[in-house]
């Protein structure tokens, strides 16, 4: 083993084929994965599709040895293998690229590669290693600068380095977990194209977890679709239409039609951000003189690669981060993040991951639904006495109107499923008149049905005249919903256009900061 | 609005489940697990006693006799429970907003000392006792409140860890008191123990009628009830629970999280300060090192065992009052050092903190699960 790793890839290695038979994984009383069998030939670019909770990551974690499958076997190159932990997987040539980077940011690419080796020596002979690395890179279809700290690389280069790392460790079966979520569309296409090329040359086999049909149809050879822990279908990508794959993913669930955009004359400016500046935790600028206007009855979508100040902007608008400079103006009045202002100006918000950002998990559904109204009549008497009766009645009404699936209003909200938590928050935030709506990645981690519902609700608010600011890492979401698109890069808005006058490529170019 | 609801995908399932059963199960867990922790610490402590060659059964019999056996020992126990209720409240209220404050001892000392120092001119000037006590109590609560309020402010404004700062401020508080009782405010007629001037019998707070227990117990019980109502039945309490459960969500709802933190800390400090007032006005009659008796620290244990529930604090404080009260008897009868009781307290605390990991692990306490997942 050590001899292989020390002088890696003098001769090109072959891709590995993988087969799983009857993989089953049970958590408590629930089967997260049930009898999943799939066969992927060596040199295939295979996509794993499915909604959240369909069992994609459970399957992958069973293959990688993070979980022990209750039943089922894994065969590599036709030989049954026993993978007890990730170290076993690695020794067998199975590697994984995660959604988020696992490189050490302060070290250079070369250092990251060498220390990742299982047999990294205590004292490193850098001359020898660099020679080995350069020789290794000569065999690679792409290069990444290895002598600068990883933190100074662009996201796309970091992702390429992650892949180089797997190749360096001689891992010829690569599992990629939504690898493009941190990349610009251009970077994503380039990287997937490279992987496809290597797979076609039979150098690697790729399993990619994805939920983007565009990527699957453009780059993948075959696909397996999971639904509720079972294999719902699959086959060669050329034989399948997007509609067929979507149908496999969601089954018989009825998806709400996308809400129609009612034509509206441009309203008055409702929300105005003037030269906003804010700092991140390290005191570095997170927002840099950001200017933006949102009018009544329009959705302004903010696109951008994650980490360009989007979260700071949401936090500033929801009182979670102090504003260093600049002004927020709502309806020609200065905005203060206090209850009175939120109530008077009718400002509401749908944050990403609502359980984490918009609820108190341990409090009951009824209490969580009362966050907006607990200090107003009828829930509050004399301004300070809390009456549980009216709170309960109101919660019951919202639960029925928004079809929140809960055992009782007294259940802890943490006991609800993701879609139902989101619905409870929607009920709280959208059940009265809305003038300003701040939305951040509202569909992150939700299933199709919930996503369609939420998008329709947002459109509904726009049609009724609310000014909507939508921050999303999903460009398709913005293209579907927004009237105008703004691109955020380096903490500021560097491009604004009405949706008719722009396209994916232009937006992508500005996301990369050009 | 109704037409929107009709579009929503999933069918309704908001069936009226048995809410009572959910609540009973949840609270049963909060009683059963601390009781289990107590039992485990009793077993561990018995092993400790056996290792010393002492009889565990004799020890626990003595605790019951020395703490609760006779009218006298019961009153002694209640006497000691009074400050424990107040110092436990000083832990429980900040805990509701997510802070772990362990500096009740410092607020008790500062409150008691300030009350004793302010009483000197009033005693010398022959003010009416009722007015004197009132001013002393208000002063103690105010000083204690500001003392822990500083901790809350540092936490909110500067991100200083409240657990560490409150503990360190305890030592500052004790040093401030020592500085004055050994210096400017020292009663020179008392050469043995540096103290402030005594209040004198006329200014000592009396016992509750028909008992040998001072008024601190009644005040503690009433305060516990008031704080329970404040935390569960008012908009203030609701806001505190939101801020304590998820500060980010609270900020997004426009709640003044920083202000709430400081107010909770001030309430906590006021409770501990009042405990100091009662120690001075009903027991010691002066401020001296006897104020540093560890009530502030035992109160932490009481509050954790009561799961920061003000009402539950009352019986738990009485139980620990009994253990503290029986210390003397145990020392005499079993030839064990005074600190033995501290070993029991320490063991209980460690076991109790460990038992926190047990919540949610037992099926019997959980609401019946449904398999409809979206």
Descriptive notes:
The complex is a heterodimer of chains A (514) and B (374). Chain A has 514 residues and is an alpha/beta fold. Chain A folds into 3 domains: 2-250, Rossmann fold; 267-346 and 434-514, Rossmann fold (3-Layer(aba) Sandwich); 359-432, no CATH class. Chain A has helices spanning 2-6, 56-64, 86-91, 109-115, 126-138, 155-168, 185-200, 213-219, 242-250, 310-317, 339-345, 354-357, 365-369, 388-401, 418-430, 448-463, 475-481, 504-511; strands at residues 18-27, 30-40, 45-50, 71-76, 79-81, 94-97, 173-177, 205-210, 222-227, 230-236, 269-279, 285-295, 299-303, 325-330, 333-334, 347-350, 380-381, 385-386, 436-440, 467-471, 484-489, 492-498. In chain A, the strands form 5 sheets. A 6-stranded mixed β-sheet of chain A has the order 6-7-8-3-9-10, with helices on both faces. In chain A, strands 16-19-20-13-21-22 form a 6-stranded mixed β-sheet, with helices on both faces. The longest helix of chain A is centred in the middle third of the chain and has 16 residues, at 185-200. Mean pLDDT of chain A is 87; it is low at 1-11. Chain B is globular, with a radius of gyration of 23 Å. Chain B has a domain at 86-298. Chain B is built from 15 helices and no strands. Chain B is mostly helical and 374 residues long.
Helix content of chain A: 25-40%
CATH 4th-level superfamily of the largest domain in chain A? P-loop containing nucleotide triphosphate hydrolases
Approximate shape of chain B: globular
Looking at the overall shape, the CATH architecture of the largest domain in chain A is 3-Layer(aba) Sandwich
End-to-end Cα distance of chain B, whole Å, is: 23 Å
In total, how many beta strands of chain A?
A: 22
> Per DSSP, what share of the residues of chain B sits in E-state strands of 2 or more residues?
under 5%
**Largest sheet geometry of chain A:** 6 strands, mixed
């Amino acid at each position: 083993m050590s001899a292989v790793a020390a002088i890696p890839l003098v001769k090109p290695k072959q891709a590995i084929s993988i087969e799983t038979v009857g993989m089953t994984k049970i958590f408590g009383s629930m089967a997260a994965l049930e009898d999943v069998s799939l066969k992927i030939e060596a040199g295939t670019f295979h996509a794993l599709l499915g909604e959240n909770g369909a069992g994609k990551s459970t399957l992958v974690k069973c293959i990688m040895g993070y979980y022990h499958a209750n039943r089922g076997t894994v065969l590599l190159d036709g030989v049954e293998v026993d993978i007890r932990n990730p170290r076993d997987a690695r020794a067998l040539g199975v590697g994984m690229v995660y959604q988020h980077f696992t490189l050490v940011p302060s070290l250079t690419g070369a250092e990251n590669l060498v220390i990742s080796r299982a047999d990294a020596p205590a004292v490193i002979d850098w001359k020898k290693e660099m020679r080995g690395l350069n020789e290794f890179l000569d065999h690679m279809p792409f290069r990444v600068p290895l002598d600068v700290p990883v933190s100074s690389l662009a996201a796309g280069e970091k992702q390429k380095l992650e892949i180089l790392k797997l190749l360096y460790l001689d891992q010829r079966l690569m599992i990629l977990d939504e690898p493009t979520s941190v990349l610009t569309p251009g970077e994503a296409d380039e990287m997937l194209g490279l992987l496809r090329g290597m797979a076609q040359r039979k150098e690697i086999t790729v399993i990619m977890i994805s939920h983007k049909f565009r990527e699957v149809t453009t780059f993948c050879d075959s696909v397996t679709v999971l639904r509720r822990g079972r294999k719902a279908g699959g086959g060669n990508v050329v034989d399948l239409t997007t509609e067929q794959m979507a149908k496999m993913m969601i089954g018989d669930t009825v998806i709400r039609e996308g809400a129609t955009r009612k034509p509206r004359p441009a309203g008055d400016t409702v929300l105005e951000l003037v030269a906003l500046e804010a700092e991140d935790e390290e005191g570095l600028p997170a927002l840099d003189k950001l200017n933006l206007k949102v009018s009544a009855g329009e959705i302004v979508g903010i696109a951008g690669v994650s980490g360009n100040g989007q979260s700071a902007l949401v936090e500033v608008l929801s009182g979670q981060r102090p504003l260093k400079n600049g002004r927020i103006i709502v309806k020609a009045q200065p905005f203060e993040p206090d209850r009175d202002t939120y109530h008077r100006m009718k400002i509401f918000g749908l944050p990403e991951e609502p359980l984490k950002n918009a609820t108190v998990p341990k409090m009951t559904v009824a209490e969580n639904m009362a966050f907006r109204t607990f200090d107003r009549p009828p829930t509050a008497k004399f301004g300070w006495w809390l009456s549980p009766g009216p709170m309960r009645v109101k919660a019951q009404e919202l639960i029925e109107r928004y079809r929140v699936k809960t055992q009782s209003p007294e259940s802890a909200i943490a006991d609800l499923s993701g879609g139902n938590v989101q619905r409870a928050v929607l009920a709280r935030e959208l059940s009265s008149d809305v003038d300003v709506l701040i939305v951040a990645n509202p569909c992150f981690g939700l299933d199709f049905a919930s996503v369609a519902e939420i998008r329709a609700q947002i459109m509904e608010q726009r049609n009724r005249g609310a000014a909507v600011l939508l921050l999303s890492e999903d460009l398709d979401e913005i293209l579907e919903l927004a009237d105008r698109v703004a691109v955020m890069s380096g903490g500021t808005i560097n491009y604004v256009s009405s949706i008719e006058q722009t396209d994916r490529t232009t937006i992508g170019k500005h996301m990369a900061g050009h | 609005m109704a037409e929107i609801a009709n579009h929503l995908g999933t069918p309704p399932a908001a069936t009226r489940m048995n809410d009572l059963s959910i609540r009973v199960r949840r609270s049963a867990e909060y009683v059963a697990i601390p009781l289990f922790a107590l039992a485990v610490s009793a077993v561990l402590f018995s092993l400790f006693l056996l290792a010393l060659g002492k009889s565990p059964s004799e020890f626990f019999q003595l605790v019951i006799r020395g703490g609760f056996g006779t009218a006298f020992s019961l009153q002694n126990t209640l006497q000691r429970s009074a400050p424990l209720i107040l110092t436990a409240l000083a832990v429980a209220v900040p805990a509701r907003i997510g802070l772990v404050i362990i500096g009740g001892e410092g607020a008790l000392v500062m409150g008691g000392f300030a009350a004793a120092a302010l009483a000197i001119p009033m005693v010398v000037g022959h003010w009416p006792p009722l007015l004197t006590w009132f001013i002393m109590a208000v002063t103690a609560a105010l000083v204690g409140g500001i003392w822990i309020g500083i901790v809350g402010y540092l936490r909110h404004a500067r991100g200083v860890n409240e657990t560490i700062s409150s503990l360190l401020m305890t030592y500052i508080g004790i040093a401030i008191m020592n500085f004055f009782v050994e210096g400017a405010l020292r009663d020179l007629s008392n050469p043995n123990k540096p103290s402030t001037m005594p209040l004198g019998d006329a200014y000592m707070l009396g016992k509750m009628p028909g008992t040998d227990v001072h008024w601190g117990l009644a005040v503690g019980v009433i305060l516990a009830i008031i704080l329970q109502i404040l935390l569960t039945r008012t908009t203030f309490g609701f806001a505190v629970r939101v801020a304590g459960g998820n500060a980010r969500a609270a900020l997004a709802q426009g709640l003044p999280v920083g202000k709430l933190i400081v107010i909770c800390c001030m309430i906590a400090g006021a409770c501990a300060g009042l405990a100091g007032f009662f120690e001075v006005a009903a027991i010691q009659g002066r401020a001296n090192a006897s104020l540093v008796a560890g009530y502030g620290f035992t109160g932490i244990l009481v509050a954790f065992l009561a799961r920061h529930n003000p009402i539950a604090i009352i019986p738990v404080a009485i139980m620990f009052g009994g253990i503290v009260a029986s210390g003397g008897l145990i020392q005499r009868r079993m030839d064990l050092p005074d600190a033995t009781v501290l070993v029991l307290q320490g063991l209980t605390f460690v076991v109790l903190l460990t038992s926190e990991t047990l919540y949610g692990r037992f099926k019997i306490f959980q609401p019946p699960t449904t398999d409809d997942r979206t």
